[in-house]
Design a protein that fits this description.
The protein is mostly beta strands. The chain is built from one helix and 18 strands.
């Protein structure tokens, strides 16, 4: 079983105006792979495997990364590289796939300072398909929980505005909305977990929350919010109240961590 995992904000998040995304095909859609959404994607038009299509992200200044996510893609044969300030270089271990059958792929690499990233796609899972990628994330881990708290009050809100019309029918208007949920253990007893939680509350910038931790099969069904591709930029929306459980020192701390999806 994989545990709930936390990561720093995507180093090439679309909210950074100094980050650019380009592609040798479908360039107009390249930025969509950085906008945190599983609803739209970078996609090519008229592409063939022999085109050796590239998707490139350029950073204004170097960022430290050690984790790469390719979420919802159809790449079979591809290479992911980083720019070290002088040239394109391979990660260690190299990200060089020749028969990837997964629709979301995650890689741990030795930490580097990257000025940019490049994916070169040599083949798709169905030959000569249009290439697509919903989310590209380059980040560093904050931590993985050792205990498994209850995931409570999960809400996938569309912030709907409902108005009843003269006809008697309803007008329902929705926007992108947000995700929010609570992490509610009986008691926070693991010292490492408490260190992670305290760091989350100190964060001025949003952080990524991955509920499945890389293993969606641990849940009864693969439902939205608990899949490999579901990773959310969030912040703590409540104040930390670390009361000792039942007032007993050494018995662990009891409080909920309330998380909400944010814009930054």
């Amino acid at each position: 079983m994989s545990r709930i995992s936390f990561f720093e904000k995507n180093k090439c998040d679309f909210s950074d105006s100094n980050v650019t995304a380009t592609a040798s095909q479908g360039a107009a859609y390249a930025i969509r792979a950085l906008n945190r959404s599983n609803m739209n994607a970078w996609i090519t038009t008229g592409s063939e495997d022999a085109d050796n299509t590239t998707f490139t992200v350029t950073l204004a200044d170097p960022r430290k990364v050690s984790k790469i996510f390719l979420l919802k893609h159809n790449f079979k044969n591809y290479v992911v590289e980083y720019h070290n300030g002088t040239t394109w270089a391979a990660f260690s271990p190299a990200i060089s796939e020749t028969n990837d059958t997964k629709d979301s792929s995650v890689f741990d690499v030795t930490e580097v300072e990257a000025h940019g990233f490049r994916i070169t796609i040599y083949g798709t899972q169905i030959p000569d398909s249009e290439k697509f990628l919903y989310q590209f994330i380059a980040t560093r881990p904050i931590g993985i929980l050792g205990q498994q708290p209850k995931i409570a009050n999960f809400v996938r809100s569309r912030n709907a505005s409902v108005t009843r019309m003269i006809s008697g029918k309803y007008s329902v208007r929705e926007n992108v909305g947000n995700v929010q949920f609570d992490l509610d253990p009986a008691v926070w007893y693991d010292a490492g977990d408490l260190t992670i939680i305290e760091q989350l509350y100190r964060q001025y910038e949003g952080f990524l929350v991955w509920l499945c931790g890389g293993d969606e099969s641990q849940f009864g069904q693969e439902r939205e919010g608990y899949r490999i591709e579901d990773i959310y930029l969030m912040k703590c929306r409540n104040e930390i109240q670390p009361d000792w459980n039942q007032g007993l020192f050494g018995a662990g701390l009891k409080f909920k961590v309330q998380l909400a999806e944010v814009v930054d």
